[in-house]
Amino acid sequence: MLNNKKIVVIMPAYNAEKTLEKTYNEIYQNFVDEVILVDDFSNDGTKEIAKRLNITTIVHDKNKGYGANQKSCYRAALKAGADIVIMLHPDYQYTPKLIPAIASMMAFEEYDAVIASRMLGNSALRGGMPLYKFVSNRFLTEFQNILTGEKLSEYHTGFRGFTRKILENLPLETCSDDFIFDNQMLALILFNGFKIGEISCPTKYFPEASSINFVRSCKYGLEVLYTSLCYRLAKMGIKAGVYGSKGKILDLDKELNYYNKRVDT
Ligand SMILES: Nc1nc2c(ncn2[C@@H]2O[C@H](COP(=O)(O)OP(=O)(O)O)[C@@H](O)[C@H]2O)c(=O)[nH]1
Ligand SMILES: [Mg+2]
User: Going from the N-terminus, what domains does the chain have, and what CATH number goes with each?
Assistant: First the structure.
């Protein structure tokens, strides 16, 4: 709790058995009310480790994708009564020690969302980010800033926080089940006039922390360009992409398959 706001950390997991415990152990538990993990039908021991760590765990009955995984995470967090939700990858790429800093930026109602940026400062390449990812991140960020009129240092980090208001009001059900979900969500936040704050965050690249290959990165990059173009069109009154009027908010009645539900005493 912070300023009477319930803080929930969500972890969209896929084959995270080697890094989950290390990530979890660095979460400052006194401050976080609940940790929820959604296992997207991993083929390793992710859910068993989550259970041993007493994390509220939900399992998908098939591999649904990174975006679909986040949708399940946000549904579960809203059902758990979260006021502030921090999304953290369980691949130990980002330091969980910054959770209190991120949460406090929203707990006192200065921001509606916060991203932990690898591009503020110069730690991305030092942390081992591949050069092609660094260059494309910079290019896509500039392109997106121009088309949205914003000035974020990046749009692609896996460490973010959102207020309940954002999760309840954005048409997230309409967003992709794949990796572009992340970018669509940020674009929707800006499109709807919510405020995004940033903090700097170190990043670590090692084999388990980065599985997206070159081809999937290219697909993601093209989809980012498309998302930004649709944003500009929608601002000009031409409904396009996820900004259309038929967007659906998260369907909270959808079944969640709890593998290990935390029981509050
Ligand atoms: N749900 C789901 N998540 C995935 C899949 N592949 C990767 N992820 C997760 O997506 C996140 C980002 O992927 P990652 O390989 O770490 O990307 P990078 O760090 O940006 O290079 C990680 O938390 C992965 O566990 C998948 O097929 N399904
Ligand atoms: Mg990663």
Answer: 7-129+154-210 (3.90.550.10)
